[in-house]
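Q: What would this chain look like folded?
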Amino acid sequence: MKRREFITLLGGAVVTWPFAASAQDPAVPLIGFLNSASPGPFVRLADAFRQGLREGGYVEGRNVTIEYRWADGQFARLPELAADLVHRRVSLIVATGGALSARAAKEATATIPILFIVGPNPIGDGLVTSLNRPSGNATGVALYTSDLLPKRLELLEKLLPRAARIAVLVNPSDAAHELETKYVEDAMRVTGQQMVLLEASAESDLEPALVSAVQQRADALLVSANPLFTSQRAQLVALAARHAMPAGYPWREYADVGGLMSYGPSIAGAYHLIGRYASRILNGEKPADLPVQAPTKYELIINLKTAKALGLEVPPTLLAFADEVIE
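A: My prediction, written as structure tokens:
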């Protein structure tokens, strides 16, 4: 399968990673890494961040130290964790795992540089006043994941042209869920499909949500790009398989663990980019002078093994559009 070329964009517990320095040298810059989820599912993404740092000349444990703070899905802890990083006088805060992490960091300090990765519009979230000239102390990557839900719906329709009822899984504790719901509703007015709204704000909500989708006779599932779902992607994919539910996901990381289909930008690329931005800030640049980045390319990943397990035949036109087919 020939892939189209893409330009890739260029995260609790207190966790000590293998390369963390045992004691902080005052001459060594200290980065605070804040994430709303747990470290396990984000290992690859944290690696991408450190790779970006290395390319900018900073190696963890050698000439930079990173303090990790993970909320383990307990979003109410984010302000406390962000405040702790400020108390430790970090050189900058990398706020990952959604807009809630970025807001917590932004509320904790108006002076320490902040790098974020968010799905919705960072201007609407009050993180920056401009994308090209962010002003203030924050910049980063805006993935605009909510905008992609109609596109993922379209791709599901190509795979399942007879699907009349589509379940949409959102996290009601995420401010973006209302916008996501609206986007899907607007798209379904055109397609004539019906939306089955599923809500989950904790890991324990996921299985009841999938059971509800089956009970409401949903033909397929769309999963929003919420960090809770990303951190629980293996469980979500397993639940979809157990209930024989075709599903569309926001990141390739879902397809890598058996998800049927994903469409979206490279989230690992976003972590890599803020690693590069972090090195530039450590070298003296200001967040206000670093534009908020956005994806320029998107990738469609289809897991053919999962399609066969579901008894689905992927149309050749959809296969031809895919950037990667997992067999």
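Residues 1-23 have pLDDT under 50 and may be disordered.
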